[in-house]
Every structure is written in structure tokens, then in C-alpha cells.
From TrEMBL:
<dbReference type="InterPro" id="IPR011604">
    <property type="entry name" value="PDDEXK-like_dom_sf"/>
</dbReference>
<dbReference type="GO" id="GO:0045145">
    <property type="term" value="F:single-stranded DNA 5'-3' DNA exonuclease activity"/>
</dbReference>
<dbReference type="GO" id="GO:0036297">
    <property type="term" value="P:interstrand cross-link repair"/>
</dbReference>
<dbReference type="Pfam" id="PF09810">
    <property type="entry name" value="Exo5"/>
</dbReference>
<feature type="region of interest" description="Disordered">
    <location>
        <begin position="23"/>
        <end position="42"/>
    </location>
</feature>
<dbReference type="GO" id="GO:0005634">
    <property type="term" value="C:nucleus"/>
</dbReference>
<dbReference type="InterPro" id="IPR019190">
    <property type="entry name" value="EXOV"/>
</dbReference>
<protein>
    <recommendedName>
        <fullName>Exonuclease V</fullName>
    </recommendedName>
</protein>
<comment type="similarity">
    <text>Belongs to the EXO5 family.</text>
</comment>
Length: 409
């Protein structure tokens, strides 16, 4: 691992959106995105506007012809979805929506929440480019305000330990390098300061043979000096000061365990079988391509010299080599959006068998091996918070949805 000195602040580069690592689109070859770089302890944040991110999202999938229809109505989604249901291997959800991007951890969580809603939202997101219309997971438009407040809180938490600064990326290689440098700097911060936030994670899930990506809210080093296993923390914010329902907690546990699963995969393969070739092949990257001046400067400021993506990947691998597996004890925390008080906190025991089965169940849908299922009968209250209720064939009951409180996360 490289660090400039004990006093010099390393740069952590922040992606322009949760693009490669979470929900938003990967940068286009044709329209290089703005990106951000992040300095710890700096003074200001210049995040890319949501407008530009959405525009990229709409332009970034040259192979996705169905995603460029303009001015759609939400009522059209059901028809659209029925017409475009994946049929061949190269027409699966994974291929259509996560090609060269990897499966997001949030995809696994969303799929567990409601498979049919996941399908609807994947197709609808391609149609929606307006922030006001954008469909959110598990809450719908009525909860846009709460979702925005949750995002703001996460930015606030990140700014407590890091500072975001924009930089431009000019190629897919730049974009990948940016994420890896983010990870490297986040790990440096974890090691030296004992804590980091919004840590991007990119890992090849060997058992499933797919790339998965995510962003861990917080990673802490344990207080006990003899313990070297980092503790992963997922932070949810709630609009209402209520304890989350069991379905929500279960969903949060899956997300957390996915992060741990990916973390352990990276660590386990850091010394042997590090999947460099798979990385370049899957994301269609040229390891010898020269990085932009901005990226090269960012690497310099982070304390290592890199002129190409291949250079960054070597530092990335070295960083992974120094990591210990994440702690088997994970932390799921819910806090109030009103005053940030902790409403509920759970220490979650890692269950690898369970999380693997959840990922595999998710993949059955994403690889087109079966049809999407609807929510279970005892969880039909979820439908009351779903934007696609008028389109959904699985929704039948109107009485069960209003009595439960699904506070926004
Ligand atoms: S209405 Fe209910 S079953 Fe249908 S997609 Fe929405 S949450 Fe799922």
C-alpha cells in the first residue's frame, strides 16, 4: 500500500454517481462523464449535477435500443415489459442492464424485496430521465423527499471524513481507475484513521462467475488491537422515527452480507488468482491505455505513480493483499432523518450459506432462468409503496397496504 506521508492528505477520487459501483450507468465511450475526486479534510464539495448524470444514463447504453424511447408514460411500462421480456441468453436482465457494469449489491437487495418491482424499475429507469419522475426503490415517488434526505445524510457523513472534488474522466479506463483509487485511498484511510466511509467495492464473485459492485457505507477497524478484521456498517435513514419492519431488516442484512462476501472474495484472491484478465475482459478495458492527466495527478497526490490502468490495478491488488477478511459481525444501523438519532442497531452474524443462496436466487431471475415472482402474501403491504401497482398482475389486495408503516430508507 502506498501513502504519501503521515501528514499529507491522500486524495480519494469519487465517482460522478454510484455508476459502476451502484445503480447509475457506466460512462459511455461516446460521452465521457464528469467525475469527482475527493480530498479528505478539504473545504468544499462539487458533485456532478443529477441532470448530467441522468443524461449520461440515457446515452450510455449504445446496445440498448429500447431505452431511447422518449416521453413515455408510466402506464406504458407494463406493455413495454411484456413485449421486451428476456428470452435468450444475451437478452437477460443481466445482459441488458448490467453488461460491462457488474451486478450491483443493491440489485440483490431490490430483487429480494420484490422481483417484479425490480423488473419494472429496471425498464422504467431507462425511460425516466427527470429527477421528479425517477422511480425509487421500495418507496415510489411519494417518498422522493425522504430518499433525497437519505442521500443528503450519506453525503454529510462522507464529508465528515472526506472532501469531494470534481475531476474529469475521459475514458472507461479513467473511470475504472478512479474507482480503484477511491478504494485504495479509502483503505489507506481505514488503516491510518480507523474509519472510512462510502468505500467502493468491486469484486469477482468466483462461485457465481460474475462481477459484483457496491459501496459500503462505513468500515471501521475494531478497537481491540489484536483484532484486525474490519467491521462493515450499513446505515439506513428513516423518515419516520419507527423501528424497521422485519422485511426491511432482512433486506438490510442481505445487503450487508453481500458486502462482506465481496470483501472476502477480494482478500482471498489477492495473492493468488487475482482476476485481472477477467476485469479487463468483462469491462472491456485496455490496461495499457494512458490515463488522463487528471487521473495521473490524482494518483500522484495519493502517493503512487500510475500512468495506465494496469499500473492502478497493480496498486489495487497490493492494497487488497494487506487486507484481512471482514469481521463476521456486521452492523446494521437505522437513524432518524429528523435528528440523526439511532432508532435501531443490530449486530448481524454473517451467514455465508444464506447470502450465497440469496445471490443465486437473484441470479436465476437476472439470467432469465425463471419468471419474476411477486411479494409474499404476508408482505403485500409493500405494494402500497410501489409505483407499479397499477401495472402489476400480482397485486390484488387494497386493504393490507395502508395499515403498516414503511418508513423511507
Ligand atoms: S405491486 Fe407489489 S407485487 Fe407488484 S411489483 Fe409492486 S411490490 Fe411487487
Amino acid at each position: 500500500m502506498v501513502r504519501t506521508s503521515s501528514k499529507k492528505i491522500p486524495i480519494v477520487i469519487l465517482s460522478d454517481e454510484e455508476d459502476v459501483y451502484t445503480e447509475a450507468s457506466t460512462p459511455s465511450k461516446h460521452t465521457p462523464p464528469l467525475a469527482s475526486k475527493l480530498h479528505r479534510n478539504g473545504k468544499s464539495i462539487d458533485s456532478v449535477s443529477a441532470q448530467s448524470k441522468r443524461r449520461l444514463c440515457m446515452c450510455s447504453e449504445p446496445d440498448g435500443d429500447m431505452r431511447f424511447i422518449s416521453e413515455p408514460d408510466i402506464e406504458d411500462y407494463g406493455y413495454f415489459l411484456r413485449k421486451k421480456k428476456p428470452k435468450a441468453d444475451n437478452n437477460t436482465l443481466l445482459h441488458l442492464f448490467r453488461s460491462k457494469r457488474g451486478l450491483f449489491v443493491t440489485d440483490v437487495a431490490k430483487t429480494e424485496w420484490c422481483e417484479r418491482q425490480t423488473e419494472f424499475s429496471l425498464f422504467s429507469e431507462e425511460w425516466k430521465s427527470n429527477e421528479g419522475k425517477r422511480v425509487g426503490f421500495g418507496g415510489g415517488r411519494r417518498n422522493n423527499e425522504a430518499i433525497k434526505a437519505g442521500r443528503n445524510r450519506h453525503v454529510q457523513l462522507q464529508q465528515e471524513v472526506q472532501t469531494l472534488v470534481e475531476l474529469k474522466v475521459k475514458s472507461r479506463e479513467d473511470d475504472m481507475a478512479m474507482k480503484l483509487v477511491n478504494f485504495i485511498n479509502g483503505v489507506n484511510q481505514l488503516v491510518f484513521d480507523g474509519l472510512t466511509r462510502e468505500l467502493p467495492i468491486l469484486s469477482f464473485a468466483f462461485a457465481q462467475g460474475i462481477w459484483m459492485v457496491g459501496q459500503i457505507d462505513e468500515v471501521q477497524m475494531p478497537r481491540a488491537k489484536k483484532d484486525h478484521n474490519p467491521i462493515l456498517v450499513e446505515i439506513k435513514t428513516r423518515f419516520q422515527d419507527t423501528v424497521p419492519l422485519e422485511a426491511q431488516k432482512r433486506n438490510g442484512r442481505i445487503q450487508l452480507m453481500c458486502y462482506k462476501y465481496l470483501w472476502n472474495n477480494i482478500v482471498a484472491h489477492a495473492h493468488h488468482d487475482f482476476p485481472c484478465k477477467q476485469l479487463y475482459d468483462y469491462f472491456e478495458l485496455n490496461p495499457r491505455r494512458t490515463l488522463s492527466k487528471d487521473l495521473q495527478a490524482a494518483c500522484d497526490e495519493s502517493g503512487f505513480t500510475a500512468r495506465s490502468l494496469g499500473d492502478v490495478v497493480r496498486y489495487y491488488q497490493n492494497t487488497c493483499k494487506m487486507l484481512a477478511p471482514a469481521s463476521d459481525m456486521l452492523v446494521l444501523r437505522y437513524e432518524s432523518q429528523r435528528d440523526h438519532s439511532v432508532l435501531y442497531e443490530e449486530k448481524v452474524a454473517y451467514d455465508e450459506g444464506w447470502v450465497k443462496s440469496e445471490i443465486e436466487s437473484c441470479l436465476e431471475l437476472w439470467l432469465g432462468r425463471r419468471e419474476a415472482s411477486f411479494v409474499a402474501e404476508d408482505e403485500q403491504w409493500k405494494c402500497g409503496y410501489c409505483d407499479f401497482v397499477s401495472e402489476c398482475e400480482g397485486y390484488t389486495d387494497t386493504d393490507t397496504v395502508s395499515t403498516q408503516s414503511l418508513a423511507s430508507e
